[in-house]
Amino acid sequence: MPRIALSIALVACTTAEAVEPVTAPRPVPAVAAKPLPAKRLDLRIGNVRNYMMPNEYREALGVPDADRDTVVVEGNRTLLPVKYDQPVPGGIIAPFWALAHPLQSWRILVPDLRAPPPGPPDVVPPRVFRWGP
After folding, report:
1. What is the 8-class DSSP label of residue 23?
2. pLDDT in tens, 62-93
3. For residue 16, what pLDDT is reported?
4. What Å distances lie between residue 74 and 28, 80, 96, CA to CA?
5. DSSP code for 4
6. Does the pLDDT of residue 100 top 90, yes or no?
7. What is the 3-state secondary structure (H, E, C) of 72-130?
8. Cα distance between residue 114 and residue 117, in whole Å
């Protein structure tokens, strides 16, 4: 019964849409739009002393090699501890760890990059090539 009602509703909608006369859209009168005034980009910072300590300002003025178009940004980035930074157990325990951590199980197939390379440690430094004595 619901299928019959749905098909009757669809037929009624399509016939109602076909009966409506098609009218051409009226042309919109062209209105001359006023261009917005271009606002100049203000890149001035104002008084530099508002952003620097007095000793930093004096030090910046006293540097002879200061390049005026170079910006140096210094900062320390502290890394937050994350779960994938913790080592994955290897050997026979790896499948059991993978069952306990199914979303991280792909990590047992990837080598640990923080582990030292296999083999004996490099105790003899590599030879330095020189042209002369």
Report:
1. -
2. 766 655 666 777 777 777 777 667 788 888 99
3. 59
4. 58, 19, 45
5. H
6. yes
7. CCCCCCCCCCCHHHCCCCCHHHHHHHHHHCHHHHHHHHCCCCCCCCCCCCCCCCCCCCC
8. 9
Residue partners of 49: CB distance under 8 A and separation at least 6:
57
CB distance 94 to 88 below 8 Å: yes
How far apart are the C-alpha atoms of 16 and 121, rounded to whole Å?
A: 86
Length of the chain: 133
Pairwise CA distance, residues 103 & 115, whole Å: 22
pTM of the model as a whole: 0.30
Please check whether residue 88 is in contact with residue 108, taking contact to mean a CB–CB distance below 8 angstroms.
Answer: yes
**Residue 112 contacts residue 87 (beta carbons within 8 Å):** yes
Do residues 72 and 63 make contact, with C-beta atoms less than 8 angstroms apart? Answer: no
Amino acid identity, position 113 = L
* Element spanning 9, H or E: helix 2-19
Question: pLDDT at position 48, please?
Answer: 79
Q: Where are the domains of the chain?
A: 89-113
